[in-house]
TrEMBL record:
Family: Belongs to the protein-tyrosine phosphatase family.
Top-rank taxon: Bacteria
Gene Ontology molecular function: any one: phosphoprotein phosphatase activity
Pfam families: Y_phosphatase3
Residues passing through the membrane, by range: none
Organism field: Novosphingobium aromaticivorans (strain ATCC 700278 / DSM 12444 / CCUG 56034 / CIP 105152 / NBRC 16084 / F199)
Protein name per the record: Protein tyrosine/serine phosphatase
Amino acid sequence: MAQDRVLPLEGIHNFRDYGGYAARGGRLRKGVLWRSGQHSEATPDDLAKVQRIGLGTVVDLRGDSEREANPCLRHEDFAGEVLFHPGETASVRGRAAHEEMAREVRSAADAHQAMLRLYETLPFRPVLVGTFRLYMQALAGRDAPSLLHCLAGKDRTGVAAALVHHLLGVHPDDMMADYLLTNTAGNAEARIEAGARHVREGFGRSMDDAAVRVLMGVDAAFLDRAFAAMIESHGSVEDYARDVLGVTPQALEAMERRLVEA
């Protein structure tokens, strides 16, 4: 069951294990590849549950101003390392990537087109690329469980997790199903409500509710657009990963040794 991957938490949305899928040479290990939204509203019980995972690395895909505005809470015994490339990943200071697209959105159709434009750019934004590189290095060089997150854990996080799946040979159908799990993982309505507050407080007051839902959800066409952009610019996803993210054949072999079990 897809929902079995989800760790039910009150103040952290979309927290789930994206391992366990069939991959090249075996199956992705469970309990070592985690993804989520930000932890700024985590409850003490949430933090205790997360602490039990034993995270060694947290990769934060947000920009500096997002971290400043919504600092993530950590358990008092957290001893892992938080990795990020300094700078902004969105063009609007203090906003998530999906929020910057809200400026000209009024309808669901507007929102869908805006998200397609966003996904074309996500693989190439310099600060985001810098954090993607740190994530790939961590997966190749560290054994402890890792967590990947942004604000909502759906776009920046979704692309990075899908890249890991693709590079490790997860079937495209499984990769897409995991990406789309964002739409139903945990208390999706609470996640949408929390995200909608951010959008409307910024520049989305006049958009309709259907548009907000598109911005706060994911769609197969979005991820397809990101992968198409990688292929168009570099010939293949593998070449993009090698040339832009530094995932050499040696690094990929190291990722497989750590993350794939027979």
